[in-house]
Write a structure and sequence with these properties.
Elements (H helix, E strand, L loop, with lengths): L9 E9 L8 E8 L3 E6 L1 E3 L12 E3 L3 H21 L9 E3 L5
Antiparallel strand pairs: 1-2, 2-3, 3-5, 4-6
């Protein structure tokens, strides 16, 4: 997780489990509310499909509430997944890259 200034306190809101398409395992998502009203994520796995040069490794999303933040994260991850399927790639467990910083 990135280092923040002392003014950026984090409060863990919740932990979610997201399934990206048919991939296993589920991606565990810890969501934290920041003082600036944005939400910070810590993901157990990053998504890197066959069409992506780098893994999708978001760590912060601005949203009105926790549900909107997690919905935006899910839409982004599923979007990459669906794009790969549309280009003819077969889903693979290797698309889920473990986050070495997730404990």
């Amino acid at each position: 997780m990135p280092v923040h200034a002392a003014a950026d306190s984090l409060a863990m809101a919740r932990e979610y489990h997201i399934q990206v398409g048919t991939l296993c395992p589920f991606v565990r998502v810890r969501i934290f509310r920041r003082d600036d009203a944005s939400f910070q994520f810590q993901l157990s796995h990053f998504l890197k499909t066959s069409i992506q040069y780098l893994p999708y490794a978001v760590d912060c999303i601005a949203a009105d509430d926790e549900d909107a933040a997690i919905h935006q994260l899910e839409q982004n991850m599923h979007g990459f997944y669906e794009q790969a399927l549309h280009r003819g790639y077969t889903p693979s467990a290797s698309w889920l890259v473990p986050n070495p910083s997730y404990h």
